[in-house]
Amino acid sequence: MANLIVRGGTPTERARRVFVVGAEGMIGQAVINALTGYGAAVTALIPPGCEVQLPAGVGIATGDVWNPPSLKGLARGHGVILHLIRHTRDNPARGRTFYFLHVTSIRNIIHLALSAGVGHMIMLSTAGVLCGARRPFVESLRLGEHYLMQSGLAWAVARMPRLLEPNDEIDSALSSLGQLPLIGSLLGRYVPIPLPELADGLARLALNPGARHKIYYAPALRKLPL
Fold this sequence. Notes:
There is one protein chain. The protein is α/β, with parallel strands linked by helices. Helices cover 38% and strands 16% of the residues. It has one domain: Rossmann fold. It has a seven-stranded parallel β-sheet, with helices on both faces. Helix 2 (26-37) crosses helix 7. The two termini are 33 Å apart.
């Protein structure tokens, strides 16, 4: 399938063109559905050989985030890149360390943004070790955040907790407690978050022109307007 290259348009039109990295994953597909629901024009970056069911009208760009030449020019004409790669498991024996999975991919996508003239980039990260994340996982994402913040791009980072497991009574109880004002102010950023809620928040973050140069946790993302 040929890559879709988007060009032209007014600044307002380009601001609503979102290039989604990690579109093949569960979070990526949910975010794409939320974005299209808000009327955004979306292009999904899909790895070679990967088959994904996407909503009608979503553009497809084929490229490997760990192979920079395959990304050349793919994001041109978009207003924002949404980087959703967040692997919770590594495989050092195969070279897939957390550093490779997160830092290498974010650096490659930063280069893509700069070379394609996309001035705004958002990164999905983690809230930290209190939400059950392994320390090397957290450290690799924090280093990715650092590179993004120093890139010269307009940026936003979404430090989100782990996803709520469906039908898990403990997760459901924790998520409900996180909505309470007092508990939410203390632990709201760490309790599991439902996938639809995460996807909607990330979509609104991508489409909010004022949501830049800031780290967002789940409570703030829930309140973010379009």
